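Researcher: I'd like a structural prediction for the single chain below. Treat it as a standalone chain; there are no partners to consider.
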Amino acid sequence: MNIALVKLSSLGDVVHALPVAATLRARLPGVRLSWIVERREATLLVGHPGLDEVLTVDTRLWRRARSARGIAGAAGAVGRLRRRLEAGRFDVALDLQGLLKSGLLVRLTRAPIRIGFNAGFCREPLSALFTNRRVTPPPEAAHVVDQYLALLEPLGVRERVVEFNLPSDPGAETRIDDFFAAAGLKPRNRVVVLNPGAGRRNKRWPTERFRALAMWLADEAAAHVLVVWGPGEEAAARAIVAEPATGRRVLAPDTTLYDLMAVLRRASLLVAGDTGPLHLAAALGTPCVGIYGPTRAERNGPYGAGHRVLQGPGGRVDAVGIEAVFAAATELLG
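Model: Treating it as a single chain, here is the predicted structure.
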């Protein structure tokens, strides 16, 4: 049986879908699994033991095409992908995204069984037009990880394997070991990683509160604080570790995705909003404090036990106070 999984983005969403591949590999021996994913998120799937093939697309580039040359290039890429999907002779395709673009890709596989969510569970309800087996997750499947796994019901797969199998790069592990040593961060230290960024402004806890939290953790909890950052977030990260400093607040270097995972593997705790690094940390087994505003923590919180989530009243992330975050962090730190 050839199965195509369609989960294109984003970072956290791809992490949440990884147990689907692990479950299919464990429960359907001999199945061939392919995953269709955006080029930017494909790093998460490199070497995944549950996958036979990773097919990358770049729908972001396709949508940005404006010139005649760009449009022609996008059309050529779509044509090549269509032919590749047809050649895959897929028996089953799963739409784990619930968007029009993911539904279209599921349809392009020409799989006779195309599984997705009922329209009410899709972010773009019209995507359900491209599937012919539609699932409504049961009430107990509150978290998105469990909702994705519910899509396996039409295949008769009920025993689930919640494994993420995130990749590790030896070069990244060495780089982060060297950085920790240079920064004076030792294995015995309690290292709290702060991630102030998020894809949407209304998911970002105020920078000045991260700064105050960093000072409290360093001064009152004797923790070492490491601030990570992504594109466009360096200024906020630098503000969090700005003087006066005690030597316990450190700015992380520019990191690749592999570097970030190496940092999170060494962390005692991560504090972040609803963003990709939070879900990476949870999947790696690192305790998390999630600061949530507009998104529902019961659906999108850090998956698994041993985490704390603070939900801002009225869907406002800035309604979460510093004292509450500090208390949750010190509780998890012991």
